[in-house]
Design brief:
Length: 207
């Protein structure tokens, strides 16, 4: 998703995320204990770009700012967040987040919470940013480990900027992973089949 969209919508969406992220609220004392770190995607496991190779950044502690467009940590336990960002030489980027929770039940609740945030993201964008039209699509679930779901999000500004993103949430035991791919374009430009393969790999590769 281009920086134009992120800059225009991020501030308003942060307010929306505060309202949407209350389901898992709990005291910080309930933070999950440290566990074996899950593994991340490599650059070669992302949907192939037709003209540019992917470059993977380092695995970094914390929640990636870019995911705050649809997903946030508000109202969620102080889990173990790690992420890795990816980029091409052109206007295409991706990010993977891993979250280690305290139990498989907590991971299931968190995965549903994140999927709900992604499912309702288009509505929240339009409510908070009148200059942006947004549409979400459900590309279905994937039979990998405890399950995964893939969704799409298209945004178009009043000045003509158009962006497409694919987002997925998957679970393996007590760990949740979120993957986002984005670039300029619309639903016709989204590599859905390749992204489903990437999501399946991401979930399988965690442990």
């Amino acid at each position: 998703m281009s920086m134009r969209i992120r800059t225009s919508a991020l501030t308003a969406l942060t307010v929306a995320a505060l309202a949407a992220g209350t389901v898992l609220t709990a005291p910080a004392a309930g933070a999950a204990p440290k566990a074996a770190a899950p593994k991340f995607l490599s650059a070669s496991q992302l949907p192939p770009h037709p003209t540019s190779s992917w470059t993977a950044g380092p695995v970094t502690e914390g929640f990636p700012e870019g995911l705050g467009f649809c997903v946030s940590t508000e109202g969620v336990l102080d889990y173990d967040y790690r992420h890795r960002e990816f980029r091409t030489d052109l206007d295409t980027s991706a990010v993977q987040l891993t979250v280690v929770t305290g139990s498989a039940a907590q991971a299931k609740a968190l995965a549903k919470h994140y999927d709900d945030l992604i499912r309702t993201c288009a509505d929240r964008i339009e409510e908070s940013s009148p200059d942006i039209e947004a549409e979400g699509r459900d590309y279905g679930s994937l039979p990998v480990e405890e399950g995964a779901r893939v969704r799409g999000l298209h945004t178009e500004t009043s000045w003509g900027a158009t962006d497409i993103a694919l987002l997925s949430v998957g679970q393996d035991g007590r760990t949740v992973t979120v993957v986002e791919w984005g670039q300029m374009g619309d639903f016709g430009d989204a590599p859905v089949a390749a992204f489903k393969k990437t999501t399946t790999t991401a979930v399988k590769k965690l442990y």
